[in-house]
């Protein structure tokens, strides 16, 4: 089993750290993982994206152009990556700020309102964990318990007091996802 | 400290592996996409862990000359940079080779020429393997294809550098530097307290003074020295070739690729074999010494070879030398910081080799 | 020296008035007659011998006339690329802080190609001694213009004299490094007559004593001559140096520690 994922949005939305927690979760259940970010000036206030591959086998290329799942968090990324989802694949997107919704009919599309939920939780920082919760609900490749372990491993100790809030956000994300 | 599993960027893995390998000093200068090496080291305070010295130099030129100074004291020292910075270091590198000093130089390659791009490339192959600076000299060049190898090759490079009193280079690229993968880190090794007998540590009464120089004003002496260097390189070629074969046993066609391109080719092999094309991969791990013998042997087995490089075709020349006209050898690659896709690799295998 | 007259036969204990430092080798130096390099080497060797630190000191030689310094000083010496000696010395000292480290550099090496390395080593306050021989010319390569060549001074690349409008002004590196917080002791000396040799030797001694106390960079400029490059006899060159070089590069201390 191999899952090839792209997560794309604005810098500051927690795109890279979401990918990192995903990768750590994979490690927790003994999978091979790779995390390949876009890097450089384009990240400064612009778009950020990361390719995460989780696999039971040795990962060949960490850089790929088509994906099993795309997690899309702004309009530019929608324009760039909607066509990159493999037929039969999955696209999860946050509807906030999206002016042109995805149109593909050969993939499964989920719209979520993670931004809205994050503001209900009164913490913008929970946004990416809500999105991650939604992802693991529809693609249960990594178990929630391993995500929590991954979170613990990827957060510096001084932020460990934030783990309960992140757990709540993950659960909220699992609840809100429904087919668009 | 035990062996430890971590999720790390390639650049971070190099830095942590250097501390654990018992390196004495790191001298560097920031440049994308390798700045995480220096950032990680300054954050980690290795001086408190092992006594390792970290210094951000005023330039790449100063950094490589600091490496010269440290290496001449018999210390395990290193620097890292990316392509434009490595060009600046070439003066220092040829002096280090000419003074026969061991050290580690890491190049996290980006696209050129000039300021080029910050995205990954493999266009510094010639510079790394054919000289780079002036004069007849060679670096030992290791090409990691994973974050694990970024970590593992630090100690390997130091071992080879000290074994042959020769600078060693890890030739990586922006993709491997920036990506995160699982990495098993080795336990902490103690820093060596012993100095090689040639090191400049202060002249004691029991020995002649130690002089580190690359200067021979007498041409005969310089020629003798050149012969000595060449003999050393032949010895390295005999003993230190490393490569990996991937699905070569039944292969009718062959990719030759290193580093990130080799990862792309592995995926391309999966795709090609789904279509019934029997293709394998020979991945050089040492670029100098180059795995000439195995490539020559595989040329007796396969019908054609495609090298895949993130360049206009540099390693392909060494592959052609190894094959020596026995079968067609073609190059295909992307430039400018673009990583080739596996699908493109398969298409080009078909059009340039199978259909050709 | 012919075979039948050996050093031992010539030098009897009763008429021995001077002996060279044992920190110097028996090699004949490659310096031109009358050149200040030999004297500068000698006093460095003497200080090292007097302080008994031969086994604790590492020297860094430049590219320039003194590139072969390692042939004349019986020390562990590294020969650095042109201008890079302060960077090389930085690493030696950082990796072996218990040792003494010095660089010996000429004007082209220190004040042209190596300006960045010089400024930054001084700015970091590297705990090393930098000895800077300023003779206003590139001696080794045959008398080309140096960064310190005086206005109007002829060289093989300023054959009509240095025109500051197109070639820039002679650079006063010692004045510059004295302004940096990292330097501890900065002085300009010369070695053309015994009194000045004694002063320079004292400066070298001080610099190494300060190094032992981890005080920061000590920078000693020695204004010197180049009879061959200047196309003068040794005596003429010394006179010219005093009359022409010293007014632009006045001797004296630029930065003296308060503990003195």
Structure report:
The complex is a heterotrimer of chains A (180), B (356) and C (260). Chain A is α/β, with parallel strands linked by helices. Chain A has one domain (2-179): Pyruvate-ferredoxin oxidoreductase, PFOR, domain III (Pyruvate-ferredoxin Oxidoreductase, domain 3, 3-Layer(aba) Sandwich). Chain A has helices at 15-28, 75-81, 114-120, 127-138, 144-154, 163-176, and strands at 2-10, 32-37, 47-55, 67-72, 85-94, 108-112, 178-179. The relative contact order of chain A is 0.18. In chain B, helix 1 (10-20) crosses helix 7 and helix 11 crosses helix 12. Chain C is an alpha/beta fold and 260 residues long. Chain C has 11 helices and 9 strands. In chain C, strand 7, helix 9 (194-212) and strand 8 form a beta-alpha-beta unit. Chain B binds chain C through residues 24-25, 27, 53, 55, 57-59, 61-63, 65-70, 72-73, 75, 77, 91-92, 95, 99, 200-205, 209-215, and chain C through 54-58, 60-61, 67-68, 70, 74-81, 84, 87-92, 94-96, 99, 116-117, 119-120.
Poorly predicted regions of chain C: none
Largest interface: B-C, 38 and 33 residues
Number of domains as seen in the coordinates of chain C:
1
Name of the CATH class of the largest domain in chain B: Alpha Beta
So, the CATH homologous superfamily of the largest domain in chain B?
Answer: Thiamin diphosphate (ThDP)-binding fold, Pyr/PP domains
The CATH superfamily of chain C turns out to be Thiamin diphosphate (ThDP)-binding fold, Pyr/PP domains
Strand order of the largest sheet of chain C: 2-1-3-4-8-7-9
Helix content of chain B: 40-55%
CATH architecture of chain C: 3-Layer(aba) Sandwich
């Amino acid at each position: 089993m191999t899952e090839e994922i792209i997560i794309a949005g604005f810098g500051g939305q927690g795109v890279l750290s979401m990918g990192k927690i995903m990768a750590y979760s994979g490690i927790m259940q003994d999978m091979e993982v790779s995390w390949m970010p876009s890097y450089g000036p384009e990240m400064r206030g612009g778009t950020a994206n990361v390719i995460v591959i989780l696999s039971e086998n040795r990962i060949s290329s960490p850089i790929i152009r088509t994906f099993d799942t795309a997690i899309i968090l702004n309009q530019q990324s929608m324009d760039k990556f909607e066509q990159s989802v493999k037929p039969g694949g999955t696209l999860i997107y946050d509807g906030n700020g999206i002016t042109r919704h995805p149109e593909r009919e050969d993939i499964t599309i989920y719209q979520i309102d993670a931004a809205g939920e994050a503001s209900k939780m009164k913490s913008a920082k929970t946004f990416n964990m809500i999105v991650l919760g939604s992802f693991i609900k529809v693609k249960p490749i990594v178990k929630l318990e391993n995500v929590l372990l991954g979170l613990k491993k990827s957060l510096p100790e001084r932020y460990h007091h934030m783990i309960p809030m992140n757990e709540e956000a993950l659960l909220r994300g699992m609840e809100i996802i429904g087919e668009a | 400290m035990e062996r430890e599993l971590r999720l790390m960027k390639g650049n971070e893995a190099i830095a942590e592996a250097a501390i654990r390998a018992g390196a004495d000093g790191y001298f560097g200068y920031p440049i994308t996409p390798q700045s995480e090496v220096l950032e990680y080291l300054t954050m980690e305070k290795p001086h408190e862990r092992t006594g390792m010295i970290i210094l951000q130099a005023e330039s790449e030129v100063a950094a490589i000359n600091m490496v010269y100074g440290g290496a001449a004291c018999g210390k395990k020292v290193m620097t890292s940079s990316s392509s434009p910075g490595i060009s600046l270091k070439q003066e220092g590198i040829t002096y280090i080779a000419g003074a026969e000093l061991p050290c580690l130089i890491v190049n996290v390659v980006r696209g050129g020429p000039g300021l080029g791009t910050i995205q990954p490339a493999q266009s510094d192959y010639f510079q790394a393997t054919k000289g780079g600076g002036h004069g007849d000299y060679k670096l030992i060049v290791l090409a990691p294809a994973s974050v694990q190898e970024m970590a593992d090759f630090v100690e390997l490079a130091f071992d080879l550098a000290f074994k042959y009193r020769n600078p060693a280079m890890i030739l990586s690229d922006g993709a491997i530097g920036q990506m995160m993968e699982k990495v098993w880190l080795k336990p902490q090794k103690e820093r060596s307290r012993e100095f090689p007998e040639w090191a400049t540590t202060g002249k004691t009464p029991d020995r002649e003074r130690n002089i580190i120089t690359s200067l021979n004003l007498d041409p005969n002496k310089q020629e003798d020295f050149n012969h000595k260097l060449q003999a050393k390189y032949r010895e390295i070629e005999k003993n230190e070739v490393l490569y990996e074969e991937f699905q070569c046993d039944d292969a009718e066609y062959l990719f030759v690729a290193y580093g990130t391109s080799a990862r792309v080719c592995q995926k391309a092999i999966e795709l090609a074999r789904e279509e019934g094309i029997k293709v394998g991969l020979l991945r050089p791990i040492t670029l100098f010494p180059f795995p000439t013998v195995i490539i020559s042997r595989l040329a007796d087995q396969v019908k054609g070879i495609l090298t895949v490089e993130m360049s206009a075709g540099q390693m392909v020349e060494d592959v052609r030398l190894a094959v020596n006209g026995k079968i067609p050898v073609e190059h295909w690659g992307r430039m400018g910081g673009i990583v080739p896709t596996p699908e493109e690799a398969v298409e080009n295998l078909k059009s340039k080799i199978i259909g050709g | 020296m012919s075979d039948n007259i050996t050093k031992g036969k010539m030098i009897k204990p009763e008429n021995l008035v001077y002996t060279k430092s044992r920190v110097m080798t028996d090699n004949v130096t490659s310096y031109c007659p009358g050149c200040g390099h030999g004297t500068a080497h000698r006093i460095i060797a003497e200080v090292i011998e007097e302080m008994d630190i031969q086994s604790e000191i590492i020297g860094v030689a430049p590219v320039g006339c003194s590139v072969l310094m390692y042939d004349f000083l019986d020390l562990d010496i590294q020969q650095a690329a042109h201008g890079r000696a302060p960077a090389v010395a930085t690493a030696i000292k950082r990796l072996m802080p218990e040792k003494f480290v010095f660089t010996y550099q000429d004007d082209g090496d220190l004040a042209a190609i190596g300006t960045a390395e010089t400024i930054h080593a001084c700015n970091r306050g590297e705990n090393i001694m930098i000895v800077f021989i300023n003779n206003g010319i590139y001696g080794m390569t045959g008398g080309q213009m140096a960064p310190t060549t005086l206005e109007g001074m002829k060289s093989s690349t300023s054959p009509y004299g240095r025109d500051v409008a197109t070639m820039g002004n002679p650079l006063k590196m010692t004045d510059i490094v004295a302004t940096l917080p990292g330097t501890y002791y900065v002085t300009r000396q010369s070695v053309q007559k015994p009194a000045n040799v004694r002063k320079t030797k004292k400066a070298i001694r001080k610099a190494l004593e300060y190094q032992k106390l981890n005080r920061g960079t000590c920078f000693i400029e020695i204004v010197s001559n180049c009879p061959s490059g200047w196309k003068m006899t040794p005596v003429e060159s010394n006179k010219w140096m005093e009359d022409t070089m010293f007014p632009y590069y006045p001797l004296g201390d630029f930065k003296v520690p308060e503990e003195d």
